[in-house]
Amino acid sequence: MKRSEKAERIRAVLEELYPEVPIPLDHADPFTLLVAVVLSAQTTDRKVNEVTPELFRRAPTPQAMAALPVDEIRSLIRQIGLAPQKAKALSGLSHLIVERHGGKVPRTFEELEALPGVGHKTASVVMSQAFGVPAFPVDTHIHRLAARWGLSDGSSVTKTEHDLKRVFPRELWNKLHLQIIYFGREHCPARHHDLSTCPICSFAASRARIREEAARSAPRRKA
């Protein structure tokens, strides 16, 4: 099967399973989305959504966040992994948004990635979900599924993003990246997954990949 044909079949399955894809991080505007995405690194969306209501009550704007001492931000997000580093990042990015961008979240990749704690993936999420700019943020689920489905070689996140952008139409990127995330969470786990019965892996993964992962998941015999 050609890669383009495979991609179209994958898209059709995802569209059938997830015709609507809500943004998993609770937010009210570009700034609160940016904060939530920064907090989500190495942390579940569920945990972020548990922590952000009080944080956003205290600091719903860049101005309010910049006015909070870093220790206070850290206390509000203490249940989140890497809380000390993220507290510094939230304070720093809020100050820069106020000082350089008039209190508005910047709308370019370059300006977003210049903010503390904001890498390319975070910038891509904000650009796509807050501003509707076509982007293909690659998280852990997308990276491993692209390799599992033979759409990329898994060598790097950058390569995965490049390959997915080549194979899927630009106008579908923003929806597809969320569809793949939901599929990875609900249908295609990293371990103990029978690729041969999966709605997508069964036709997208190579036979060698199916055998390899089946062998890896098989219980080991005791000596």
Write the layout of secondary structure elements.
Elements: H1 3-17, H2 30-39, H3 45-58, H4 62-67, H5 70-76, H6 83-101, H7 109-113, H8 120-129, H9 140-148, H10 157-167, H11 173-186, H12 201-204, H13 207-217
Characterization of the model:
With 223 residues, the chain is mostly helical. The protein has two domains: 99 residues, Helix-hairpin-Helix base-excision DNA repair enzymes (C-terminal) (Endonuclease Iii, domain 2, Orthogonal Bundle), CATH 1.10.1670; 100 residues, Hypothetical protein, domain 2 (Endonuclease III, domain 1, Orthogonal Bundle). It starts with a helix and ends in a 6-residue tail after the last helix.
Task: Give the domain tally.
Answer: 2
Unreliable stretches covering 5 or more consecutive residues: none
| Silhouette | elongated
CATH class of the largest domain: Mainly Alpha
| Structural class by helix and strand composition | mainly alpha
**What is the CATH third-level topology name of the largest domain?**
Endonuclease III, domain 1
- Count of helix runs: 13
SSE string, helices as H and strands as E:
HHHHHHHHHHHHH
CATH superfamily of the largest domain: Hypothetical protein, domain 2
Range of strand content: under 5%
Total count of strands = 0
CATH architecture of the largest domain: Orthogonal Bundle
* Ends distance: 41 Å
